[in-house]
Amino acid sequence: MKKIILISFTFLTLVSSITVGQSKKKNIAQPELDSGSIEQQFDYIITKSSKFKDFQLIRRTSILKVKAHTLDSIKTIRKDLISANKSVTQIESVISQLENEVQTLKNEIEHISEEVDSISFFGKLISKSSYTIFVWSIITLLLIALVLFITLFKKSTLITKRSKNELEKVENEFEVFRKKSLKKEQETMRKLQDEINKNTH
Q: Residue 109 has what pLDDT?
């Protein structure tokens, strides 16, 4: 009987000390959770969390803060994706317009090649060769602009893919961490219940 009373007293003392310790820790500021990457915040929580036997006890406020940061990161990435998609659409429109202009100029050159050697240009007669050089200069400038816009389009596509990959990575990391946390919490509660059952009997 004395042994049971002693075990019960020890258990109550342990529970009360853990409760008091957790209530004190709730007021502790954690600036580490307000900076750094999501992965660094998860590492900080795991490193600083309390240990009970083979289990890791994580404060609810800490995981909720990291969850909020993760959701903010996801929202930011989604905004970047929307912005990148808009840029891609605009660049595609400009590229299409430039391609049409280039094709129009090519058709015009083919028509000019059938004309006489001298043509009227802005009220002045100039040689066909000079006119051709002028037109090809414009075409060259348009082609340079087309290459520039194609480069920007590819860059925007890479940014979009990178943003999607980062979004998937963050979501996967959060899901894995959530499952691990839930599993650890369930195992902790199960062992605690087993200890209570042992002490009861």
A: 81
